[in-house]
Records
---
Amino acid sequence: MTTKSLYRRILLLAVLLAAFVFVLPTGAQDDAFECPTTGGTLITAIGADPVSLNGIYANDGASVSILSYVFNPLTLGGENWGTQIDGDLAESWEVSEDGLTWTFHLRQGVLFHDGEELTANDVVYTFNTIQTAEEDIAPFRPRFMQGGEPIQFEAADDYTVVATLTEPNASFFTDISVPIVPQHVLEGQDLREGPFNREPVGTGPFKVVEWSTGEQIVLEANPDYFRGAPCLERIIFRIIPDEQAQVNALLTGELDYLPNVPGASLAQFDGSPDYSVTIADTDSLYQMFFNLEREQFQDPQIRQALMMAIDRQALVDTVRQGLGSVHNSHFDSVVPFYDQDRQSGYDYDPEAAGALLDELGITDTDGDGFRDIEGEPWVINLVTFTEGFRDYLDYAQVVQAYWEDIGIDVELETRDLGTLVEQLYQERTVDKEYDVHTSGWGQIGPEPNSYANFYMWTDDLGPNMSNYRNEEINSMFEDARRLTDPAERMAIYEQIEAILWEELPTIPLYRQSQAVVSSSRFDFEAAELDLSIGTNFRRPERIFEAAE
Amino acid sequence: MKRPYPTQLMTNFLLRRLVQMIPLLIGISILSFLIVKATPGDQTMVYIDPNKPPPSVEDMARLRAQLGLDQPLPIQYVRWLGSALQGDLGFSLSGRRAVLTEITDRLPATFLLGFTSLLIALVLALPIGIFSAVKRYSFMDYVITVISFIGLSVPGFFLALLLMQIFAVQLRLLPTTGMRDAREDYEGLAAIVDVARHLALPAIALGTASLARWVRYERSSILDVLSQDYIRTARAKGLREDRVLRIHALRNALLPMVTLIGLSIPGLVSGSFIIEFVFGWPGMGLLAVNAALRRDFPVIMGVTMLSAVFIVIGNFVADILYHWVDPRIRYE
Amino acid sequence: MNNGEGVVRIQQNAASAQESPWRMTWRHFRRHKLAFYSLILLLFLSLIAIFANQLAPYDPNDIDPRNTDVRRGFPGAPNVEHPLGTDDFNRDLLSRGLYGLRISLAVGSLAMLIGISVGIVVGAVSGYAGGMVDNVLMRIVDIFLSVPSFILFLALNAILTPSIWNVIFIIGMFSWMDIARLVRAEFLALRERDFVMAARAIGVSPAEMIWRHLLPNAAAPIVVAATLAIPAAILSESALSFVGLGVPPPDASLGSMLQDAKSWLVTAWWMWITPGVLISLIVLAFNFVGDGLRDALDPMLYRR
């Protein structure tokens, strides 16, 4: 061919290539979503002011609700970041053969709310701050440490972050699921007292424009959001401490959305055309914890008897008006191997429970109507939270009733949150002051290793409140963490699950469901409801107000 | 009856009381400090969510050291006192702001609510009390008694929810919660009306709670006065009934009113937690209780001392008013 | 005749020598119909509260665990088996109401006794003695008013296990200040009256002064205060249960029963009717009794 036509060919090729590059969506850019309408304000409520809106420090419920709109994490699937294990700011990633080197490739062109671009330096800065900063406590710090030392993070270039581990850790991907903060804003500020706590800057679909303490927090759409400009213009969080007042405000239209309407009030919304009601399962688990240092609970059969004495379904009905499910594992329902029907054997059977206790010699020897152990009256000191903190007090009373029904003297003791935190959750002693305690957790995530802390014995104790010591379980957790093959790992976790179910260091009772009620004016379909995420939605930018 | 000018005795009394305020407030601060420290849990509990794995031991210890919580108690107190006297009330760990800012942020809302409810109670209690005393045992007296007791006869939170249910949810006359509308940004007169509409229910709930008490004391005290000697003397002299009532009875009937107003002044600053909680009113009551539950020590001390100042001054002013209203009351 | 009430009282007593002051007070009280019937009502309520054990058809905390027919989690409307209905834990509301009545009346009366005793003593001494004593006592009042009582209660509950006695103690210990100030105000005014000066001139001792001469004349506001203090204490307990510091569950006072009824205001009216009506009755009854007592104790009212 002629030179001219050759050049033309090359030019054509170049143009096609260019078109290909620019038109084809880059790897993780999802299917583009067209907002049917734009504008509008969604008003919801939280029960108290957030403690802080600094993504890397704030861990309380109110904070998490809001900062999930404001920040993005590198990876998803960790605590408060949903049930999908995927990248968020990380577009792609690789792990080395030996499992020690993780490489993350960031999306490009992601902008912070102040217009600066997100780079690998911000990611490294975020992680390093969590690991080392002294002015504040990062609740996630332990997840970024290995063997007492901080994990090495490096920015290989503007969009590549490399992490070097000292030993393989399969849960590493979700462990680092924390909001990424801008280095250029946060650096040089006092983390504890600086303005970032109240005026955060992130990459998320919404940004904070107003925080009027005790009244409301106003978020405005971030038009440069990397997944597309949000359909809504504003989201407002009103601060309404009283649950009934929140329900009332939803009834009058002062609120548009509430993610946890109590079962008692649901009837007022169900069936009404002005509201849409969705019952959604949650990643949560409510249990009874035994103080395994106490002699009376040494024998697992006693614990089993106590579990059989409880009608767990009736408990869920009583406490949550049925908004929940009986839970049959020591891991949350979002782990890959959870099976509602796999484990059983503790169905409600007060007769059998009583018989088991009789067999063990725990009978009423002094005729006072309650069982005794070795001639001494057996009193279980059941410690729970005072009114208002989740449903603990409610289900504690129900459990008390069931145990008393099979002849056990239960003393219910309520203590306020601060006192309990100091006495039970902070105290690093083996000798804790309680017999049985109501406790639980939520939004821990699909990574089974995240639950290890609750059942593993370590010298500095920690979340293993029961002081459950089982060498086998300890080493199984550690093995599973080091393996890389998911099938192998899950097999080990299933074994752990079975052992825990047999031994019952704790009694899993139920996980809660939530009644999500919203005004019919808004469409949440495309936003994908997921109560494990702080925002409650995988794609909060896709919420829109339906046209009149 | 002319009011005598303050005698030398009175001036001495005033000066002495003013001077005594300082050690009194210091004493209150020490006692409050000790009470807070005696409670299990400290500021660092804000980092612990019972439903999540807690931070490590070292981190908590380090934070405690930074906050000075590992120091002996007297040193902690002196440090707090030193800063406080210079106007620095400390930093709130649960609010991430200076304590002073937290307080000044909430104070106007509480004051507004407290003042309005005081006004409601005052404006209603006087005529109701007088009527009740004069038309004693009449049918209207009973009716009024029952009505004035609606506020007092059920717990505050229940009354608040009832009012909210009736006027906000069922009748849609008033908003349920908050101080301002969320959707609209009102300005000027519209803004005032907006706040007034939000203020109505909480103020009524708060006001009617004290209304009954005021009415009863008012009635009692007027009855007391009506039967006094000099009233009978005045009647015997032939003065007109209502003149008698107005001039003599009212003056002396003001005495319990003065006490009650004096007793209510600190409430203007400390707020009512329950009403604020139910109506989502961003006031000092909520701040104080949340701080207590979160063991936010600087906030607790700040709020307590603010309250204490008002209580001490309030009682001082009430004592002066006693003397002004009834000059026969003398202090030595 | 114009020397003040003290002299008049003596005259009165001399004139009706057969009738003791108590009899006379009672007679005057009975004239106040509403007060009289309120007293009857209160006696009746106290009686059923005392015999709650015998009267209650069920254990107030019994959720009837083995019963699988009941709809768990939702209050049951009044029916034959449960005339006042059941709460969301399936507990009988009639039984709970009876026990709640007992607990509320107990808390109310005992807390009132503490508060009134301390309050009268402090107020009387302060008002009569005046000077330095008055000053010190009033500063103590300031202290009690200022210290964070909520936190003190949290501390108390943490150190001793939460119990109804903590509740009674705390309510009592933080309610005496108002009474003290009122009593003091009365005494400050009374102190300057002629009959007091006369008695002092005669050489009557301070204790006798307070007990026999001043207190009876200050009786009216004290009586009003005492009768309002009981319902006030009951309501304080309810406020405390709002923050989780009231009578420890599963026992319930009328106040905490109302608290439980919060979520069911519209959907299960029977949950708040029982405690609501009972509390209102108690408050109104005490008020009328207080009115009646006050009027009956005031000798001047019946001279006309």
---
Amino acid sequence: MESQQDSRRKFLKAGLITTAVAAGGLGVLEVLSQDEKKKKGDTVKLLSPDGKIVEVDSSEINPQIPEFVVSNHNVREGVPGKKFVMVIDLSKCKNAGKCRSACSKMHYLPNDRSYIKVNKMQDSEKASPYWMPTPCFHCDNPPCVKVCPVGATFKLTDGIVGIDNNRCIGCRFCMVACPYSARIFNWDTEYAMTQDVFKNIKQHAACSSHVRGTVEKCDFCPSKTGNNELPDCVKACPNGVFYFGDENEDVVSNGDETVQLSQLLKDKSGYRYLEDLGTKPRVYYLPPVDRQFPFKDAESGTL
Amino acid sequence: METAKIERDYNHELLKDLMPKKFGMQGRLWVGFLVAVIIVGAFGYYRQLKYGLVVTDMRDFTSWGIYISNFVFFVAISLVGSLVSAILKLTNVEWRTPLVRISEIIAVAAITFAAIIIIVDMGRPDRFWHLFVYGRIQSPIMWDVIVISTYFIISLLLLYIPLLPDIAICRETTSSKWKKRFYTILALNWRGTKKQYSIVNKCIRILSVLVIPLALAIHTVTSWLFATTYRAGWDSSNFGPYFVSGAFMVGCAGVISVMYVLRNHYNLQKYITARHFNNMGKLLVLLSLIYLYFNINEYLVPGYKMKTVEGEQLYELFKGRYAPMFWSVQIFGMILPIVVLLFKKGRKPLPLFIVSLFVVVGAWFKRFLIVAPTQLHPFIPIQRVPESWHHYIPTWEEWMITSASLAGALLIITLFVRLFPIIPIWEMKEEQMRKHQLAEQKDLYEV
Amino acid sequence: MQNKKIYMKYNLLNIRFLCAVLTSCSLLCVQHAFAQDSSNAGIAKLTVSFLGKDSTRQVMAAITKPDGTGKDTAVKGVEVHFYIYRDFGLLPVEGDNTTTDENGEATADFPSDIPGDKSGIVTVIARVEDDEQLGNIETKKNIQWGIPVNKQQTAQPRALWSSANNAPWLLVITVTGMVGVVWGIIVYIIFQLVAIKRAGRYET
């Protein structure tokens, strides 16, 4: 009797322990498979969007960039097999300004500065004004890349025109060469400390980073797009103005809709800004026709 | 024996007149003033290094400012070396002899400070070496670096080689020990032998031919820094000859200004005569007429069309914000010289000097008008920026640094005049000997 | 006797505790299984096939459900969504008959100009989304109906916008030639300066 109880007790104990371990193990696996390695306890100084210096746990900053973007190929070559392209639908832009604020936030810029501009345009006196967002167009015949004396700006095979802020000598020739006013300059030391932030998250070489005395611009967010994610301006737009995708797979998406690029440009008569300059931009515009809303001069969004 | 004695006689007079003299009160004040300007400019540059280019008024839309227009101005003035030393030599213009060294030292000083002001304009001057390690041959800036450094070496050689006999004279006649050492090293064992003279003459001939295409190249390539962009007012195929003709004009005016000051200060009226002023005045008129021709091409042709952004920029120059500056520059810097100098009375030393000053100052502001207004008219309108970004008004740091560079160039010229004869003694001696021989031969025949 | 009672109670407690733990674990696992294998949950089956060729290509989806007698019957009136898999999103494929008919079949018109990988293979996805009875079902299948695209990394051409090593030949030759000639002359002149110095060495 005793021995039987003993053995039963032993068996039950063993079974209990095994089940507990199994359940616990399953749970741990669930948790681990969701999160990637994070540096716990490291804090990093950041420039917050309203211009203040804050200390943030480094695990809360942008997610890790997959290794292939940084190490497996020459970073001046680009993501293999892709040719990024953007389409901006001018009939939907209401100057919400969310693209600008998302870009400022993503790139640690002060909130009155971003790599994308939204301008009020009017093509002729009798035509209606419209809002036109202009990021860098990442031209295929880029005047800025041609004139750089030290190769600090370069064209990648995936279409992106990148900037190496460690090589730029600050001559600003690329800024006057760009007919689209896409580039901005780091005139003072305000952003210098964010260089540490960028070192910590191992930026793609084509990413614009902040180094005093060098040029910066929209970089099509290589850390996102190299990972098949949409750039921040595309995701942030509440009106679905921006479409981003890969010309090689003939598809662009604005986060909600995914459409075939060639069809979109044919149906809606896509064009490129100042096409006759011969710069071959990679950003297409869809004309501001059939608008659902009238043009409002006042700014409706923040910033 | 006879010829040697005459030589020594001529030499004496030449030496007395042309050897460098110590600075008097005026000279010291002048040098002190230049040094003061340079010190203030250096402080301005220190502030720029410390705080970044934000201390200037350059911003994202006007990213090139008076540093660049000053650079263009310096490159323009430096073309005068080739004009007087080479072009006038190869066309056998005899009266150019006293002016050769003045124009060469202006050229060397100007091109030196062109390089310096470009480094001042860079956002990261500590990365200057990137140009040599990572340089891209496709970039017009690389072409500019190549031609400017080549032109600098050639101008320096064109200044130094004809200077050798005069350095030797300085070496013989100086009393100070340090100076003697200085002159001895530079003189390269000059003994005045036939062989040495023949080498010098050969080198001068080669360099004179070489420097002309190079001078045309530096200013053409500098103009391409603007013409290879799409900007309104810069996207012009006329820029090369437009800039080169302007450069020759301002260089000529620069030489006239310097020669007037030196002539009066050092009493060189016997060597730089009214005839020189007359001839330089005629040359200036010719160059101004050529420049007027290119100006008409540059403004009338796009003005006839008034294309969108280009039209707005031209309107600003002709009638708008920059109209006072534009018309002052065109009238006082170009039309006035042509009108005044067409008359013989206008080519007398003093009026010619005043007109040349107008030309030089007008040329500086003309380069500003080429660089700044265009950038305020990009294709994409300037919106949502601070109000100050709609103008470009240089800050005191920019003015002081620019003034310091001008003062530096003048200081180089001043120090050169202090150390070396500004009028080539041996070439003047040769000329006088030739005239004496001709006079003797004439006497013989008439007897 | 008392010990035995306590012992039994203890055992019962153990058993109850054990049962509770086991049940919660299995619930977790089952939920997991349901979440991952919803297409084969034993309720309905979705198959994809391809018909037609060239400009009349179509994707067809068939939904069948076991009717309890071992046979599968067609499910009618279910909206099927067709997509082509793309890196930046799912490209919807439209058609007139995307709701299943009496045979349980729905079709969509496959676009003729869609790029595939280098052999022209594209992945088509058919989905039933949020149906009241069937829930979510998804099936993927590859078909070689795409335009073959060679996504090879092309080397930079010789151009003005290329890197420093890929400048146009004409530019490289012209600049090197001119610089070579001019600097050659400069070097010659400097040698002449040396000659001047040497020529004066033994004179007084």
